[in-house]
Fold this protein.
Amino acid sequence: MKPEELARAALGNLPVRMLRVSWLPAAMSALLLLALLVAGRHESPRWAEPWKFLGRLTAAQVVTLILSIAIIVVLTHPLQLAVVRMLEGYLPAWAAPLGRALRAGQLRRRTRLEREVLLADTGLNLAMGAQAVVSATDDQSANLRILWTGLSALAHGRIKGRALDALAEAADALPGYAAQARDGGPAEQLDSSVQMVREITAGTPGVPGPPADRRELVESTLGWVTEFQSRAGLAARNLRESFPRTRLLPTRLGNILASAEQNAGGYYGWDAVVTWPRMYPVLDPRVRDTVDGHRDALDAAARFAVAAAGTAITGAAILIVQGHWRWLPLVLLPLCVAWVSYRGAVAAAQSYSLGLYVAFDLGRLDLIRSLRLEQPADLAAERLLAGDLCAMWREGTEIDLRYSDPDAEDPAKE
């Protein structure tokens, strides 16, 4: 039997998940390290030697190589969760200094996202105030132009730091004051807030002035409302999906997954950590396949990142032992693979998190039906039921449950 036939026979019946998550990273590391060992046997590395070496392998040697990789795969496959947890930032005690340094970087990133949320919310308040000013019965053109200038400064990123904090405070009550003036109430508070906006944004460089034509001014003001509504929603979602509400983890991957654990199903009252193992078996196959695909992509990228980093370290040790110091830059190649793989794991974690949100949206009532419990009549009832069930699963709390006939509630079986 030819070597390629042996390889095909050994790999053909493997589950796709094990092939992607375990076999490919292990094979990559094994072949790269084998190439270094073979090429470095000479005084000067001969990079054509590994190809000749592989071409001279007998069938027995190919089987031995495949079995060796298989042993590595079998021994390390149960460690997949530990691999992902390590990349999430759950580091051993001796790596505490590294964890603190990484956490500081994540803190800076969260602060930046919080500032983006503040900027978008401030712009939305200014835009809503300007929209109310447009509808005022008396002439508010001067105030409208001041607010338009503030919106333009925000949109062009000219308001930062303490100026943004001051503008956010001035704009907080502006929509209410503007609505009050629009409805015929006193305009003193509106005028005071607008003057504060003017003082903060006056002299801001690089900000285009408002249109001279009133009609164009009004149309562009309404456009600011739409833009900042979109920006506010996007900034808030980005922050919510990027960081958990409580503990800050050292890595971006860890914070994305921790956020999903806290927020998936949270709107309905479910605790994703204790609910997910019970809901997963009753998910619609299409939803389950989607979630599984994202999870496989996450695990494969995480394993590639760790395998490539380990290959770089081991390869550097091999080159040093062989005395080929000037070839040490070669380890930058697997390090680049490790970095790209980690970035891929982050992207896969974002997709996986979205899959969890969708799974709870579509599958939580199927879980209630599978438990033979009465379907809640509204959101408030669901939140009470979800809170009781999660407390039972998480803490062993005794609760009163009323069972029902699931077939009677399933329209598909009528």
In short: The chain is about 75% helix and 0% strand. The first helix runs from residue 3 to 11. The chain has three domains: 3-88, 105-242, 258-399. The mean pLDDT is 85.
